[in-house]
């Protein structure tokens, strides 16, 4: 019912704008009328309400605990959208900000990542100035569209830290443009709308992320004060993000249930089209364990820039990595003598290394990823009695 309401609201917006255009009103006139009448705000609130449909999508857990996390998730998406599309929406004065972080999560966000994003336009040119510092992995990508439009975010350009010319003092500059530039250049196309920066820690406690600023250097770019059209579009994009992202990942989680407690490779083309890093191979899935069960994951990591495994709730939010061990990576893992690694997901301490806590969840989603790996071995999985592992640890 609510999914139908989301579609109906979008169709209503389109029809209203078409009718007003027939009457000779410009888009600016339409936005002003929508703001002064309260229609923009009413539709924003109606779409947020309708977004609750994702919490009752087929297959979603209906326990009070899971539903509470689901509604918190919607509130987090709302917070992220308002910041991105209302506060930092002008491509003529871009601001690098963290749309996903410790308390805003989506799409199996990586606990090892320091994500940043900025609104850009393929019609303009930009300069990033940075200090490389010590974080293990750094990448920059330009993409079509933005998170609030839906329909994916296909890449239009990519450059990573190993490709950058960095000065002896650790500083660097990157030009972002649709026209090729000498030196460090991040390509765009005229359709580009978003910059995404991924910084990936190996050892978060001891590494320092790169310090970055962005500026528009196009002479034709003029920052604008807030207009009714800007706010109208910002509220629309925010509510579309909340409704679209929550429903998309609810569909993904439902599909993952077909291979619960396994880790098949996720389609790389599908991942990249959704805004994923093209240098990363993902293994997304669902997990479910009884109180007396444990999920054992075994694999021999290949030569790679980075790898990690993480546990998520059903809504594809990473669990609380600030306070609990809910993921393990290339640096933090304890390895077997033959170079393999065994990871154990369990509700209680199995007495073995690489224990991933479930934090009160009976089920959820999970993700394994290789970054710039020479090979992509398939992680093996098996569900075993928790008591068995505890006996093995004592023997």
Task: Describe the protein's architecture and organization.
There is one protein chain. By secondary structure, the protein is α+β, with helices and mostly antiparallel strands. Helix 2 packs across helix 5 and helix 3 packs parallel to helix 5. The strands form four sheets. A four-stranded antiparallel β-sheet has the order 1-7-3-4, with no helix packed on it. A four-stranded mixed β-sheet has the order 6-5-2-8, with no helix packed on it. A four-stranded antiparallel β-sheet has the order 9-15-11-12. It has seven helices and 16 strands.
Task: Give the percentage of residues in beta strands.
Answer: 25-35%
- The rounded distance between the terminal residues' Cα atoms is 56 Å
Helix fraction? 25-40%
Structural class: alpha+beta
Largest sheet: 4 strands, antiparallel
In the predicted model, the low-confidence regions spanning at least 5 consecutive residues are: none
Radius of gyration: 23 Å
Whole-number mean pLDDT: 92
| Number of β-strand runs | 16
Spatially, the strands of the biggest sheet line up as 1-7-3-4
Oligomer: single chain
Q: Keyphrases for this structure?
A:
395 residues, alpha+beta, 4-stranded mixed beta sheet, 7 helices, 16 strands
Produce the secondary structure layout:
Blueprint: H1 2-22, H2 27-37, H3 39-50, H4 64-87, E1 113-119, E2 126-131, E3 137-144, E4 155-160, E5 171-177, E6 185-187, E7 192-200, E8 211-216, H5 228-256, H6 268-273, E9 280-288, E10 293-299, E11 306-312, E12 327-329, E13 341-346, E14 355-357, E15 363-371, E16 380-385, H7 386-394
Parallel strand pairs: 5-6, 13-14
Antiparallel strand pairs: 1-7, 2-5, 2-8, 3-4, 3-7, 9-15, 10-13, 10-16, 11-12, 11-15
Helix pairs in contact: 1-3, 2-5, 3-5, 4-5
